[in-house]
Design a protein that fits this description.
8-stranded parallel barrel, TIM Barrel, alpha/beta, 223 residues
Amino acid sequence: MKTEFNASMMCADFGHLCDEVKALEEADIDSFHIDIMDGRYVPNFAMSLNDLDCIAKSTEKPLDVHLMIEHPRNVIQMFLRKLRKGDTVYIHPEAEYHPSATIQDIIDAGMVPGIALNPGTSVETVIEMLRIVDKVLVMSVNPGNAGQMFLPYVDIKVKKLLKIKDEMNIKLYWDGACSCDKIKTYGPIGFDGFILGSTILFGKHRSYKEIMDGVRRELDAIG
């Protein structure tokens, strides 16, 4: 099973965004993860609709849009219009009164539906939604900022999700404090992909290709 690697574009150089996309493509990144923050659901602002549009026009690779915004259904169509069929959209269930309705909008638009689970969100509170989404983004840090420390209690939730993954027919993705050790630990036991940010990919004064070649070699070495 191929492990997917998705670049967290909020960590990229915004002054040279198109060049960053090209360099990441040369590193054979699988998709571009775009964090949208509204300053209300999370205490920060990150990428914008214009940033999303710029990346969408710069690559044919899939986009992975993570909406960290209040009541995403109010604005979901603006984002869906910028995407191609088959791109992924994650929402946070706590951010919406009726998250299943927003998920249905994503499905109706031909996108891949996903939910993002904060460290404090239990599996039990989203169990029914797991039946209607394709992907689950497991946050190992509180959402809103790059460069945070891993919260070890998330591991309990990870084990629960791995147990029901096949039953629910979902893919699991790791987001936050994603080091090579995390990839080597959780990739072989069932995680389908990892969001790579400042912990391993960005700001390392090495080419993205060199970094990604090294990550893949380490993962291949453990089978």
